[in-house]
Amino acid sequence: MKRILAWSIILAAVLCLSGCKGAAGSTYEVEVTVEPVQPEPQPKKAEYTVGELVPLEWNSSLLGGVCGDGAFYTLYAMIPQKESEGSSVVLRVDYASRTESVLCDIPNCAHSDDSCPAYVPDSSAIAYSNGKVYIKSHYSPHLRAKGNQDGVQIEEIDIATNKRRHVAALPPSWEVHEFGYTDGAALYGEIFDQDIDELQNVRVDLATGEWQIYQRIEIGWPMGCYKNQFVQMVQKQEIPLQLAPDAAMNAIYSLNNQTEGFICLFDAASQKRTVVRRFPEDTGEIHRAYSGGSFVLGDELYWCSINETSPRGGCQLEKINLITGETTLCAEIEEMKYLSKSLYPAFGQGQRYLKLISMGNEYYGDLIDLKTGQVDKIRWDRSNPESLSGGLQYVPQEDFPLAAVDDEHFLIPVGIHETRRGGSEYIYGIITKESLISGTGSVEYIKPWQPPEALG
To answer: In the structure, what pLDDT confidence band is assigned to residue 10 with cuts at 50, 70 and 90?
Structure first.
């Protein structure tokens, strides 16, 4: 209104000057007040900084585990797994000593209750980063006396001391999908808040346990991290986030090429987003490009794209430079595959190999040497005569191999041990790269941990 009034005054003054003759030398002064244009609101800058991010790999299965520096961490069932009870302990498979041990140094510990630092309740998952094992559970016996038993609990075990501490208790309304990244100061993950029916990204401070929502999730996929930023695949088509996660994903797939998609870098502290590349070639047909799985190594994003030009179908491994957006073809694969989980801790630190897993059951997958570009089929399987007790009963494809010990050796499951408490555990071995891709050779066995006799 002020702006309209001001312009009316100016217009009236001009008309007076042009239509009326004033006295010689007379002047007309008009006082004009113009309301300044308000700038658009900017995203609120966070009160924290984000350090160098690394991916976190989680495992909740008694078969398999997570990679650590010089070791592999897994769970061992101590109490029969039933509908609502059961417990496990965290074990360390040490590559140098070729032995498996429990993360507890308390003399004569039975590892049967929360007095043991390695003890975890049923429905727990573990992850490793920088000398710490993180435990995510829906109920922690360590908090029984505090009365906070509903929400997801996060704890950590310091590998150097075997000391355990509680990190955070999250709201009961949160359905935690994954804490996929850490910068050493915090965990960063994805949650679905059932109270408001919304997907959100959350930061949990490892020192204080305080949490902050740093992003309302647009429909898309996390693809990795680059320095202090997240690599994300985003779709601009508005899809109601009130949908449950599964329903939202179904809505995405139904859109297929009807929406614009792009890969971007997202800075959680500054809330800035930088578009790396639109897919494919600015047509927005992002689902026609994406096959499955992605890893960031250095300043390059590796992913599998659908090979529509090949008469035999399949996919191709590509790498995208996160600075320039330039795409380079690394390898063409005859069948549809996806990039599997990390073979190394803190993926991207000295990484040499990537692993592709078949979407069928013909064989376990491919090992790709990033230094040479060589792609080899993984031929070591459960029928190998070196397997214990007549072979493995069941091994997911992604468990061949479980981890890279170094550039020339890999950790694999070579048998399944049935515990007297009703659980199962892998027996581990180390083989050479040559044996992994040839399917022949010998195994160097890891000495299994033996629980206390009363609980074995």
So the answer is: very low
Angle formed at CA 383 by CA 381 and CA 384, multiple of 5 degrees: 75
Q: Which of 175, 191, 89 is nearest to 138 (CA)?
A: 175
Query: What's the angle, vertex CA 453, arms to CA 447 and CA 456, rounded to 5?
Result: 70
2 vs 173: CA distance, rounded Å: 48
The strand pairing partners of 174, in sequence order, are 193
Q: Exposed, middle or buried by CB within 10 Å (0-12, 13-18, 19+), for 24?
A: exposed
| Calpha distance 253→239 (Å, rounded) | 11
Judge whether 338 and 291 are in contact, CB under 8 Å.
Answer: yes
Weakest mean pLDDT among 149-153, 204-208, 219-223, 286-290: 286-290
> Per-residue pLDDT for 183 more than 60?
yes
pLDDT at 314 over 80: no
In degrees and rounded to multiples of 5, residue 183 shows phi and psi of -115, 15
Residue 273 CB neighbour total at 10 angstroms: 17
